[in-house]
Amino acid sequence: MPRNVKIGPEMKSEISPFRVAIVQMRSTQDPWENLLTMKDFIDQAIGANCQLICFPENCCYRGPKRSDVFDRKELFLKIKKGKIEENSEFSSSFVEMLKHCPIAVSFGSVFECSDELERPFNTHLFYRPGMDLVSYRKIHLFNFVGSDASYRESDDFKAGQSVVCADFLDWKFGLSICYDLRFPETYRKMVLEQGAQVLLAPAAFTMQTGKAHWSLLNRARAVENLSYVVSSTQWGEHSNAKGLTFECFGHALAIDPWGQVLDELSEVGDSFITVELFKDKLIQIRRNLPSLNSVPTI
Fold first, then answer.
1. Taking residues 58-69, what's their average pLDDT?
2. Across-strand partners of 234?
């Protein structure tokens, strides 16, 4: 490569940046408390002149899938033709939160009604002011068997089938959720077939897997796709239906298309970071390192 070609993060941009707020929160078993927390974060992001705010997986509810005191079906959203039907107190409150909201909002995952009463979709919902909602239903459900614990997300959720991107302000956002990060072909499809430039990966990574793989997976998806990666997260202790607690890793972060960490939070605390994404920087990196244009030879 010629010595005078610069493709790393030191490049200077002449184009106005796209500002994103990336949230780290500990959602609780109280959906109303979670809605208030999200509304407060949205107001802060508007005040910080952000154009998009990103929330983590399970942002509306983080607790037992089955409970004697709370029926999570009350939170299932019915989405038709890019709109939420106001058929419950929760759905009406959710819609009210977004009325007149001037910025885009990535709800890392909500419960969306499916044709199975007990198994909703785990859906990444992307709100755009004045436009239809975009929905991505989580394809890769987290089924894990360990020496002292196991979990089967497929027992509680129905898997989606389609890769989805959302357009907003001349940017293309690839939508995913948490465990999807371990399936690089999903992101490659977003980029090569739908032109994704920013990969959104809201998550609730466990402490154990987060320490080992969180940063590695996010940076890998950025480098191999020459894309920005924006990942909002859950943090802190949560309980399941068996009364057992587990801890989420936190570390909400953003990666640039060269694999550099733009900013990152610690593993504790409700907070958000604001990062700036530059379209000309992404275009230049992809032009100078045209790996996305190569045709596979194997």
1. 79
2. 25
